[in-house]
Amino acid sequence: MADVPPASSEPVVEVLLRNIWNEMKAVRSELGRRIDQTNDRLEQTNERLDSVRTELKGEIGGLKVEIAGLRNEMHEEIGALRRQMTEADIRLATATTELAASVKDLNVIVKEWRREHRADREALQAAHDRLCGRMDRVEKRLGLESPQH
User: Fold this and answer.
1) Is residue 149 a contact partner of residue 134, using CB atoms and an 8 Å limit?
2) Which of 32, 33, 42, 107 is the 20 to 30 Å CA partner of 88?
3) Is residue 68 part of a domain?
4) pTM for the whole thing?
5) Is residue 79 part of a domain?
6) What pLDDT is stored for residue 1 in this prediction?
7) What is the Cα–Cα distance from 36 to 41, expressed in whole angstroms?
8) What Å distances lie between residue 139 and 4, 66, 124, 143, CA to CA?
């Protein structure tokens, strides 16, 4: 004989099964509600992320433009500095060349002055020697002794 529960327990089992079924429907309904809430929050989060992404893209684009402008400005400044340095180097080289030429000219003038001065000294020495000789002759004629020159 098969194990068949008595007929009197069938309504109890049916009530229990119906209660289990109702609880499962309630749990399913609660889980569906929670899933819907989670999905809503996920949608809100995704919208905020999309908004942040859009804002960041705009900011990054603006920064790229600003950096490009600063980069161009820096290149222009560097070019201007190079030109100024080149011009300053040219002026310095020109001044140095002019100074070297002036020093050379001055050197020639000093050498010429020294030659002239040497000739003048020799002429003065000769005149001095002639005068001393004349004085010696005059002193001898007058009978005076002359001091050593």
Assistant:
1) no
2) 107
3) yes
4) 0.45
5) yes
6) 44
7) 9
8) 183, 104, 22, 6
Residue given tokens 């040497």 in the structure block? 118
How many domains in the chain?
Answer: 1
Asked, for residue 6, whether it belongs to a domain, the answer is no
Q: How would you label 106-135 residue by residue, b for 16+ Cβ within 10 Å and e otherwise?
A: eeeeeeeeeeeeeeeeeeeeeeeeeeeeee
Instruction: Give the pLDDT mean for 86-101.
Output: 97
Cα separation, 106 vs 102, in Å, equals: 6
d(CA 132, CA 36): 137
Alpha-carbon gap, residue 144 to 69, rounded angstroms: 103
Task: Quote the tokens at residue 49.
Answer: 């992320």
Q: How high is the pLDDT of residue 10?
A: 85
Cβ contacts of 135 within 8 Å, gap of 6 or more: 146
Residue 112 lies in a domain: yes
**Domain boundaries, position 70:** 11-142
Say which amino acid occupies 105.
D
Q: What is the pLDDT of residue 129?
A: 94
Distance, C-alpha 14 to centroid of its chain? 86
